[in-house]
Amino acid sequence: MSVRRIIHVDMDAFYASVEQRDDPSLRGKPLVVGGQPDKRGVVAAASYEARAFGVHSAMSMAKAVRLCPSLVIVRPDMARYKGASTAVFSIFREVTPLVEPLSLDEAYLDVTENAWQEPLATKVARRLKDRIRETTGLTASAGVAPNKFLAKVASGWRKPDGLTVISPERVEPFLHQLPVDALWGVGPVTARKLRAHGIDKLVDVRRVPTPTLHDIVGSLADWLQRLAHGQDDRPVEPNRTSKSAGSENTFAEDLTDLDRIREEVADMAAEVADWLARKSWQARTVTLKVRYDDFTTITRSHSAPPTRACEAIVARAVQLLARTDAGRRPVRLLGVSVHNFCDDSDTATLGHSRLPFDAEQPAE
User: Is there a catalytic annotation at residue 311?
Assistant: First the structure.
């Protein structure tokens, strides 16, 4: 089997970089894109100057300002970010049709065969980075590897404006450098579980018997073992469909009234049902996300025969509130999402038995 040549390209501090590109007075300053600190704003993106103070995305804006009093806060301008993203993805598709978007600012490219007739993926990555800079005035970091997992890890290795190449003969030495957090699927909670069993490095996963690893991380065990050996056979999927869709909101003041909380959840569920209707999709699973005032975040899910009926999705989302402490503990954030999609043709062969509740666990 021939070795694939996969590139993962990740734009550097994308939203913040677009702002600094378009307003020269912002260059060199610690800058974040997001909401205001007095309105419970959250950091959507941070420039590298801001990151030097410990500021990062998903941090509360109030904490970001405490870490960096000179922080410049800019409201998001999604139209400009989408414009820059469109230009970047146009460059990707000049090279290969095998482009799998992950977000506005990152994607996988399979350049095993490419329009530039370039046999070396390293040269393709360099040309991509140069074209992006010339065309958009922005920088990108790239990882080149035989598979998606390694390419994604590599792209973050030397940010910003980095290029890291993992040739087949360098895979094993590279794996030995990685902490267990480098594994996809390993968030803070799972990482703590693994480290509690002496699994600190990615390669430490290899020495753990499969039954023991299943006891620690459940169904994630087999996937982690493959990644710990550098194995990832997933193809680059240019037409990858959404696996979930949702709506969520962080509130300016904590919610304590259960009736108000139910109304918010119902509104979000209706938005999600409307999205399904526009897609002509149905969903089997509805998930409720609740973040309390102490930032503890939980999810509760329910699966049933697929539907896009607004009343059914709203009812299921609201019912999930009974499995939370909403109304007894102040709520900072609420979210409703749907998963496990199918279209109308898929439902003809489905039975109508009710499926059990999904497993419940804290979000990582």
Answer: no
User: How far is Cα 13 from Cα 138, in angstroms, rounded to an integer?
Assistant: 10
Q: Where are the domains of the chain?
A: 6-13+79-171, 16-78, 176-228, 244-362
Handedness of CA 194, 198, 200, 206 (dihedral sign): negative
Pull the structure tokens for residue 301.
């899910």
User: 304 and 284 in contact (C-beta within 8 Å)?
Assistant: yes
Entry pTM: 0.71
Per-residue pLDDT tens digits for 55-107: 998 788 989 999 999 999 999 998 899 999 999 999 999 999 999 998 889 99
Neighbours of 104 (CB within 10 A): 17
Sheet holding 140-145, edge to edge: 99-103, 106-110, 6-11, 140-145, 163-165
Q: Fill in the DSSP letter of residue 256.
A: -
Contact indicator for 175, 166 with CB cutoff of 8 Å: no
Q: What is the DSSP letter of 232?
A: -
**Strand bridging mode 43-46 / 31-34:** antiparallel
Selecting among 19, 49, 100, 106, the annotated active-site residue is: 106
| Fold category of 244-362 in CATH | Dna Ligase; domain 1 (3.30.1490)
